[in-house]
């Protein structure tokens, strides 16, 4: 059994989950674990209702007017693969950025290497910010899609999504936004941001269980299905039925996870949580920014950040720092490249990466102060 710890790895997955999440999932398993859209008996109907209720609630959260265009996925990576591989055609040009997670970078790089698409990866400045003018300059007559993260999982910087959405619309591009670090904590309205494809996980700031997530598909996006198979209805139809959400939602969904996610969303307090996490990140910056033994990597301003930053300690490998924090201080953080190698190249932290700190809604000031003291103690050992 794992003993209690100071958990500062919410950018990977949020913990602890609200008690209602486990309760809702247990109730689903015990009372209504039938196949959604697969049968007319009471358990199947109850399962279908949970899936549809989660869809409707997620649609409201993101300002989606037609909930059928909110596709249930198994995580944000799943959603981004559906978006990227479903929207692009051979010969298309794509613009992405150095901030991007491998869930954007890898499928695009693979498509580019086999000659299916061409790809421009826009660099970021020393602060890790995207310059919209650089995005404009990368667009060509063959550009079909602009893809980037909404919030960096390394520095916490929030990208100027509204500006990027306007650029995409001005050039008749599809805009893919990876909301892995912002969904559930930063206000997102797909219409206001001009987002065509919004990918998000359920297990991070939405406070739900792993194995949940979603993809909003706007009406401008002409998609091909990423997977095809059972739907529970129209079974005699020879190919995937083209109505949404079925067009992109083959197979039995993670209904028990969606029951947990549905319950979790009742616990969300996005504005208050964002303010709390920014306060904690600001506390770390204030305490350590003048310590020449510690290098901090964060957004230029706390107002342009989610609750995440990275650091290194002179003379230490980030992996060793994370191990010491875990084993000697009971503090859980993440070390390495964080599945975002291009931003580490820009920051000068490649190939070893950084130690990432990401508090959550239940993290206390005392826990952050314990981290600060531990970092100072570790750094002091090499003085």
Textual characterization of the structure:
The protein has 383 residues and is of the alpha/beta class. It is 36% helix and 15% strand. The chain contains eleven helices and 13 strands. It has a seven-stranded mixed beta sheet with strand order 2-8-7-6-5-3-4, sandwiched between helices. Strand 5, helix 6 and strand 6 form a beta-alpha-beta unit. Helix 8 packs parallel to helix 11. The longest helix has 20 residues. The radius of gyration is 21 Å and the shape is globular. The mean pLDDT is 94.
User: How would you spell out the order of helices and strands?
Assistant: EHHEHEHEHEHEEEHHEEHEEHEH
With helices defined by DSSP (H or I, 4 residues minimum), what is the helix count?
11
Measured between the Cα atoms of the first and last residue, the distance is 36 Å
Largest sheet: 7 strands, mixed
Task: Tell me the strand order in the biggest sheet.
Answer: 2-8-7-6-5-3-4
Describe the oligomeric state of these chains in a short phrase.
single chain
Helix percentage: 25-40%
Using DSSP, what is the number of strands? 13
